[in-house]
């Protein structure tokens, strides 16, 4: 498997786009953009190939450069980053991976960005019953060295039906369960970046294995899959 790289000219193009975020400039430079977009798509495709060596990816989605400005105060027509998401195989695995390339603000993210109502309730019930396995996984030193602390939005006090004084309320009140790892432009442009992406995603596996187990069983530990 060859190792794709991200070119400095792609990063430079995104910097220029940030300075010239208008339709006239973009139309004049559309051929150049299409070339960089194709290169980034190849990079994302290779990330998917690497992921499939140790996980099962159902689909990859590269996001369009065009912004939906209908409900936004910011009316600039283009995103100033390129990104892709990778969804794990269906009901059996859950969760996903995300790669975001933006000058000075590139990052990887992984976990559960918007769990549906049923999944969110199931995760919260598990944490209410016993959060020790969950804490053990996310606080394991080698895991934490790569991914840091869990992140995500949450409710202010406690979700309906849960005790606000529960010892694990810090986790129970979360609505998202994600991890983020940031990278400098120098790191993004290095030859080893794709390997670093893959090693980072590989390191999240104990967390995904635990969450897959939670989301495919009931509170008695019995499978809910057909």
TrEMBL record:
* InterPro entries reported in the protein's UniProt record: CHP02453, UCP028451
Pfam families on file: DUF2461 (PF09365)
Protein's name in the database: DUF2461 domain-containing protein
Give the organism the record lists.
Flagellimonas nanhaiensis
């Amino acid at each position: 498997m060859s190792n794709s790289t991200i070119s400095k000219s792609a990063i430079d193009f995104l910097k220029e786009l940030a300075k010239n975020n208008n339709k006239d400039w973009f139309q004049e430079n559309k051929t150049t953009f299409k070339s960089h977009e194709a290169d980034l798509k190849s990079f994302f495709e290779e990330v998917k190939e690497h992921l499939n060596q140790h996980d099962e990816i159902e689909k990859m989605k590269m996001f369009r450069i065009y912004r939906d400005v209908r409900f936004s105060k910011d009316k600039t027509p283009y995103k100033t980053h390129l990104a892709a998401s990778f969804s794990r195989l269906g009901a059996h695995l859950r969760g996903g991976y995300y790669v975001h390339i933006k000058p000075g603000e590139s990052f990887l993210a992984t976990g559960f960005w918007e769990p549906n109502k049923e999944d969110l309730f199931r995760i919260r019930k598990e944490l209410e019953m016993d959060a020790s396995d969950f804490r053990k996984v996310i606080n394991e030193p080698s895991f934490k060295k790569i991914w840091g602390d869990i992140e995500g939005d949450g409710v202010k006090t406690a979700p309906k039906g849960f005790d606000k004084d529960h010892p694990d309320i810090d986790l129970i009140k979360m609505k998202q369960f994600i991890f983020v790892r940031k990278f400098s432009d120098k790191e993004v442009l290095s030859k080893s970046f794709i390997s670093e992406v893959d090693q980072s995603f590989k390191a999240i596996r104990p967390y995904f294995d635990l969450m897959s187990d939670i989301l495919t069983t009931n509170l008695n530990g019995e499978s809910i899959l057909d």
